[in-house]
Amino acid sequence: MKVEEKIALDAIKNDRESHIKLDQKICGTCRERMCIPVCPGHLYSLNEETGDMVVEYAGCLECGSCKIACIYKSIDWDYPADGCGVQYRYG
Amino acid sequence: MDKVDAIIVGGGLAGLTAAYHLATAGRQVILLERGDAPGSKNVTGGRIYVDPIKDYLPGIIAEAPFERHVVKEIITVLDDDASVQLEYANDRWRSEPYMSYTVLRATFDGWLAEKVSEKGAFVIPKKKVDDLLWEEDRVVGIKAGDEEIGAHIVIAADGALSFMAEKAGLRKPLEPRNYAVAIKEIYRLDEKTIDDRFGLQPGEGTANLFVGAITRGMFGGGFLYTNRDTLSLGIVVGIGDLIQQKDPVAASLLMEEFAARPEVQRWIRGGELKEYAAHIISEAGAGGIPKLYTGGMLVAGDAAGFSLNLGLTVRGMEFAVASGAIAAGVADEALAKGDLSAAFLSRYEQKLKESFVLSDMETFRHARDVLENKRLFTVYPKFLSELLAALFTIGKGKKEPLYTSAKAAVRKYILNWEGCKDLFSVRKM
Ligand SMILES: Cc1cc2nc3c(=O)[nH]c(=O)nc-3n(C[C@H](O)[C@H](O)[C@H](O)COP(=O)(O)OP(=O)(O)OC[C@H]3O[C@@H](n4cnc5c(N)ncnc54)[C@H](O)[C@@H]3O)c2cc1C
Ligand code: SF4
Ligand code: SF4
Question: Are residues B255 and B388 in the same domain?
């Protein structure tokens, strides 16, 4: 099963606004892109056309790993707004 | 500003236990939890040991909604295409009082939150705390959205990322080397199938731990716990190692490969995937503990770095319960005295040192130095697997005497300078 399909099983309420903001200037100079392998949801990718880093915040599992992994401090990360984000039914 | 006695940030085990004690002591308590309900944002392995926490949840622990009591431990050491499994069962664990239980946090935290409400504390879900309120150098409440609530004392129990401890200037920035990412999958399987498959009587459970090739030489390991009618399967990998890979392999792929191993499939086969979760774990041990108090505020549980990775097990839930209770005790004393100064609250640290929380963290201060050794995840699993391959393989050629095969494997993997250093480093644990 693909990661997207796994995340689709979770109860997630989408916030309208992303709780993860990237500084494209910093990402533009980052060669390692460690946010990509670290994210359990595989939510980070490079948009080949625009050259921007993209994060599909709607599938975020709120682990915070990307924030810790990005040593260049490009990631401005907060918890989703009240009542939004993932709601684990088992945990 | 009007002030309530205490505000607790976070409805995990630490926050709920603190709220339980303060409410029992007759204090006005407001607990704010960002999730839809306490437990809805929380992930654990997990297994919880009863003895360390029973005095901190007096009376109610007997009614706790545990999943299964653990009666055996299975350790699987994996090479790329071979594995060794060790099973340890102990008859004493089969009779009450049981030593440890598997748990699911949505259920467990939900239950504890009900107990807290019964004691008269306000448990308010869907409320994310954004900031602390200050009067000079003292915390005097919190901010959540546009709302401000004053409190004589704030207990930050907001988990491993603790923005509250950060905002109070108590913890250092989060460093990759100090954290691991954990991915966990829940599989549904009926109760009877679990009993039969794992060789259990109704109510009994196992803790299965996996180490070796599954983390591709990186710090970490896997776990599989039996719940009543689900299995908790997960992998833990050091973030520091993940980001230093030459050919990066995604954490999600490691999880996929792990679940596909025959050593795991034999347990989860036919199970229906119900949930995919992720969380971080502090790996820093005693070295990662922030300052635990400031004027008007105490930090408890994962927020205070109270978790220990001992290689095969992660311990954090007992620390969360104990530190929450101890924080509540100190807060109650401070409220009674009317002294919320940092100087008075410093006794929190003293009490933690007298309890198992800081003494266990101290005992295993050097565990990480040992566990960070990559050879644990590569060389030793290979050694074991080659030794057993030599023992069990029969082919056409002449079979070497066992002693010769064993000697060769030992020479290749163990009897060298690195092996010698490893042996000395293990004494630190
Ligand atoms: C995969 C995994 C396996 C583990 N296995 C085990 C195990 O087998 N045994 C064991 O003992 N320990 C284990 N641990 C560790 C254990 O789960 C933790 O130590 C424990 O959950 C910590 O409890 P806590 O109450 O401190 O934090 P948490 O359970 O993380 O609770 C923090 C709470 O605060 C809330 N919160 C955070 N910020 C805010 C905010 N700003 N406003 C409002 N609410 C907020 C969160 O939503 C959450 O409910 C494991 C951990 C993981 C991730
Ligand atoms: S988020 Fe951080 S790690 Fe990812 S590309 Fe940008 S700078 Fe690099
Ligand atoms: S918080 Fe976790 S799941 Fe969400 S984007 Fe970051 S790494 Fe991915």
Answer: no
Cβ separation A62–B185 shorter than 8 A: no
From the list B339, B78, B26, B325, the residue with the least C-alpha distance to B214 is B78
**Whether the CB of A54 sits within 6 Å of ligand 2:** no
Amino acid B106: pLDDT: 97
CATH number for the domain that contains residue B155? 3.50.50.60
Distance from CA of A58 to the nearest CA of B (A): 14
Sorting pLDDT into bands at 50, 70 and 90, what band is A76? very high
Please choose from A14, A62, A74, A84 the residue to mutate so as to test ligand 3's pocket, defined by most ligand atoms within 8 A of CB.
A62
pLDDT of residue B404: 82
- What does DSSP say about strands B147-156 and B3-9: parallel, antiparallel, or unpaired? parallel
Contact B128 A81 (CB under 8 A): yes
Nearest CA to ligand 2 atom 2: A70
Q: Give 10-residue mean pLDDT values along chain B (429 residues).
A: 96 98 98 97 96 94 96 96 94 95 98 98 98 97 97 98 97 94 98 98 97 94 98 97 96 98 98 98 93 98 93 90 98 98 98 96 84 80 84 80 79 79 72
**Angle B353-B358-B361 from CA coordinates, rounded to 5°:** 155
- Mutate which of A52, A55, A74 for ligand 2? The one with the most ligand atoms within 8 Å of its CB, which is A74
B241 and B159 in a single domain? The answer is: no
A79-85: average pLDDT: 95
- Residue in chain A closest to B37 (alpha carbons) equals A87
Give CA–CA dist B262/B418, Å, rounded.
31
Do B237 and B215 contact (CB within 8 A), yes or no?
A: yes
Q: What is the pLDDT of residue B429?
A: 66
Q: How many domains does chain B have?
A: 3
- Interatomic CA distance for residues A66 and A36, integer angstroms: 8
Question: Cα(B129)–Cα(B8) distance, rounded to whole angstroms?
Answer: 10
Residues B205 and B263 in one domain: yes
Whether residues B216 and B232 fall in one domain: yes
DSSP B159: -
Same domain, residue pair B154 and B37 = yes
CB contact under 8 A, A88 and B39: yes
Do B151 and B40 have their domain in common?
Answer: yes
CB B144 within 8 A of CB B128: yes
Chain B residues in contact with A36 (beta carbon < 8 A): 248, 250
Nearest atom in ligand 1 to the alpha carbon of residue B13 is 25
Answer yes or no: is the C-beta of A30 below 6 A from any ligand 2 atom. yes
Set of chain A residues whose Cβ sits within 8 Å of the Cβ of B13: none
Q: How far apart (Å, rounded) are the C-alpha atoms in residues B151 and B142?
A: 8
Owning domain of residue B16: 3-65+105-173+284-370
Q: How far is B154 from chain A (nearest CA, A)?
A: 20
